[in-house]
Design brief:
This protein has helices at 2-8, 13-17, 21-45, 62-75, 79-86, 90-104. By secondary structure, it is mainly α.
């Protein structure tokens, strides 16, 4: 919901997330690359019982996950409100936020 709004009104990105639309696009590109590197590293270490591709699919795209984190850092809502805004549970919002925060420190923008 928030990411769709930003896509529709890119000039309001700074008010909502605290960074410009161009900075957001750069961050999203770096975050996507980092996420792929992490997934490849995890797959190489994994001992598989079932075939790849099984399990529950992610509810939010990488872009939406990054927006969720930035929105939380800017607005500081509860995870329940954050989950409602992004269409996920409060637990999913919490898990998403805590997954990305350590990875933001290692992004090369």
């Amino acid at each position: 919901m928030v990411f769709d709004y930003i896509q529709k009104y890119p000039l309001r990105t700074k008010q909502i997330l605290g960074i410009s639309y161009e900075q957001l696009q750069s961050l999203l590109n770096c975050a996507s690359k980092r996420h792929q590197e992490i997934k490849i590293r995890q797959e190489s270490r994994k001992i598989r019982i079932n075939a790849a591709g099984g399990g529950r699919k992610e509810v939010l795209s990488i872009q939406e996950q990054v927006c969720l984190c930035l929105f939380y850092l800017r607005q500081m809502p509860t995870f329940q409100v954050l989950g409602m805004l992004f269409g996920v549970s409060k637990t999913e919002a919490n898990d998403t936020f805590h997954y990305w925060i350590p990875h933001f420190l290692h992004l090369e923008i």
